[in-house]
Write a structure and sequence with these properties.
The protein is α/β, with parallel strands linked by helices. It has a domain at 8-132: NAD(P)-binding Rossmann-like Domain (Rossmann fold). It is built from 5 helices and 9 strands; from the N terminus they run αβαββββαβαβαββ. Strands 2-1-5-6-7 form a 5-stranded parallel beta sheet, sandwiched between helices. A two-stranded antiparallel sheet has the order 3-4. A two-stranded antiparallel ribbon has the order 8-9. Helix 1 (8-17) crosses helix 5 (133-141) and helix 3 (85-96) packs parallel to helix 4. It is globular, with a radius of gyration of 17 Å. It starts with 7 loop residues before the first helix and ends in a 34-residue tail after the last strand.
Amino acid sequence: MSRETYADADIRRILTSVKSIALVGASSNPARPSYIVMKYLIGRGYRLLPINPGLAGQTLLGATVYASLAEAPGPIDMVEIFRASEYAGGLVDEALKLDPPPSVIWMQLGVEDAAAAERARARGVEVVMNRCPKIEWGRLSGEIGWHGVNSRLISSRKSVAGAGFQRLSIVGAPTPRGAGDKV
């Protein structure tokens, strides 16, 4: 794995500027990381477009699943790749054929392809590799702290399951639609 680093300000800018995300490798299995990330990002106000040829035409978390990036309605601000690194290059090339191309290509934890990233950057597309937008959102918002989930609540009262929760926003930046709303 490469050791590319990304400034918190750049990650924050990406997460607050994108509105629509095509998640390539979406799963209908609630135990799979792609399902968990998709559900989390929908809860933060993003418009998610699940991409999975095996589930095409079905509905996943309220969104229609598409067989390919080319079939998904645009514009797509960010393409998130939830596939093995060996498939990343082809998916990046597919994303670059979109009109307009996405402003960001994000490769999930463990997914990297330096040559594909270079092709995308040459076309003016920002690339993040080996990172998870759910983890980054949680880290930058304070939802995930050194001790796990940070509720920003200190209390001696016993918590009541199902009593609700709060959503935090990314610190120091405007939040995407829906983030910060109480449920």
